[in-house]
Design brief:
Helix content: 25-40%
Distance between the termini: 105 Å
Strand content: 5-15%
Number of helices: 5
Number of domains: 2
Radius of gyration: 34 Å
Structural class: alpha+beta
């Protein structure tokens, strides 16, 4: 095995990949990650790897028949995995404004919906009744 080539038993050797239904040696791929060269892997395994990578277009890939390593975005088999939408146009992003009355909705729901809020409202009502009754008696 060449220097720098990492062999992973879970992924299998080129012979086992061929036995699993891979038809040609060109279906055996290698790629680079932060640790170095990885492979051999099948096309599907490499597509799965590209789906998990943050920048799949910049991953270097190689297979038999390539003169040199290529970016995954330059290989037709991986074009779908490397597509990303264009950036949003500036100034055309939708804006969402909050109506003024939405600011008080949480306070109302806290005041009405919770046990503490109900108790406070009952206490306030009782205080108002007492104050009203004292004013009547005082006049």
């Amino acid at each position: 095995m060449p220097d720098g080539l990492r062999y992973d038993c879970k992924r299998g050797s080129p012979q086992s990949l061929k036995r699993q239904g891979e038809s040609a040696l060109s279906d055996i791929w290698y790629y680079t990650d932060y640790k170095g060269q990885v492979g051999p892997v099948s096309v599907q395994q490499l597509k799965d790897v590209l789906a998990r990578v943050s920048e799949p277009a910049s991953v270097l890939v190689w297979r038999d028949g390539f003169a040199e390593w290529k970016r995954a975005s330059d290989v037709p088999e991986f074009r779908a995995q490397t597509l990303s939408p264009p950036p949003l146009p500036s100034g055309q992003t939708p804006t969402w404004t909050v109506k003024w009355w939405w600011y008080i909705v949480p306070f109302i729901s806290i005041g009405i919906g919770s046990q503490v809020g109900r108790k406070v409202m009952i206490w306030n009502s009782a205080q108002r009744r007492r104050a009203k009754q004292q004013r009547r008696e005082g006049n």
